[in-house]
Hints:
Blueprint: E1 2-3, H1 12-18, H2 21-27, H3 30-33, E2 52-54, H4 58-82, H5 90-114, E3 123-124, H6 134-155, H7 162-186, H8 210-217, E4 224-226
Parallel strand pairs: 2-4
Antiparallel strand pairs: 1-3
Helix pairs in contact: 4-5, 4-6, 5-7, 6-7, 6-8
Amino acid sequence: xxxTSNNQGYPDNQMISRVGRRFxxxxxxxxxVTGAFILGAxxxxxxxxDATVDLGSGDIGILNFAYALEQLEAAFYTQALEMPYSGMTxxxxxxxxxxxxxxxxxxxxxxAALGNNAIPGLQVNFSKxxxxxxxxxxxxxxxxxxxxxxxxxxxxxxxxxxxxxVVAGKIVSVEARHxxxxxxxxQPRTRFFAGDDVVNENGLDIVMEPGMVxxxxxxxxETRITANNLPK
Length: 232
């Protein structure tokens, strides 16, 4: 079990700096979303492993839903790079590093935008993942990224604030790039990057409702999450 709030000792400020945090936040339209954005606006309050957290309702609930997924993804890629699988190539390391950096920026964006409404840092559980095995790591990454894209596709329609919707659209496009990159690592130079398991016959991405996404993600999250008040 790991706490995503401290990023396993890797300073968030240093990581955010590397990926141009201020540029991302500015280009994502954060100023329009909240004029009260201040780094460190909310404090982490770590959950006990057996605790339950509710995401909330309305736009806050949807943003917390996205924040929970970004916590999970950031924690996964951080551990994958701290425990690199046997035979990881330089190209693979660069891919995974870029994805990790993006996920940390996404996580910190939602944390700051939510302020005091943000859910606590979640406890994750990656005990079923063999981080020394390439297929296990990249296979899990594929599931996380594909699920993340489907999750944004499914939750976006519930957002009432158009500024949040614009930002969500920008983030999901990055998540889709991640999904394609991971799939290309698994099966280079094939159509697997946009297979019919993620893109339907109309050329549209698969959509998953928040409840379905949480059920799929819960095995990796020690903290119990409820979404009883999310829009439907």
